[in-house]
Amino acid sequence: MLKKIKNGVWNLLNTAGLGGSVQLYLDGALKQYGWFQSFHSKQSVDIDGNPLPWYTYPFILFLKPRLKPIFIVFEYGSGNSTRWYAAQIKHITAVEHDGEWIKQISPKLPPNATVLERPLGETYVQSVRDTGQLYNIIVVDGRNRVKCANFAVDFLAENGVLILDNSEREWYQKAKDYLKERGFRRLDFIGMAPIVGIETCTSVFYRDGNCLDI
To answer: Which InterPro entries does the record cross-reference, listed alphabetically (predicted)?
Structure first.
């Protein structure tokens, strides 16, 4: 009886042209990624509610198995990505200009994550220099991204890579051009990201012998 009811419901949905949408919601890749969870909660999380960086899903899947416990990361902008990195690497430092946001995110961060509060402007752009470290990964996902990318490249370790999120935006072209001039190659990951339903791009800039083995 239950099987007949189920088949009847599916027949009605298919007749109404809704079967595909319901199937996508129940079994599709977006459910597996946790996209519906992120959309409804307005948080960048996976299907279990764990934090995810607000990158494209193809890049998240590419990056995660390549992270190593010895990595040191710097991030322009902070949030669930900071928590995600901290669970897998040695240390992450993020810079953030919004004091209220820092108050919200700081209690959720583990001891190996540090958030620097810096006002927008040159102090923010140059904050990557403050710790005296060279980084395996520098993430440019905050404000003033062209200036940040151009300045931060000098604080990568010899095997370091730079990640530029939303790299499809035309106004970030100057950063992409500069990194190319500095000898970096670019790998683009285009697709959907948590929370939103639009297509975007996350790019990683790398050289030979990089820490992600590209």
So the answer is: SAM-dependent_MTases_sf (IPR029063)
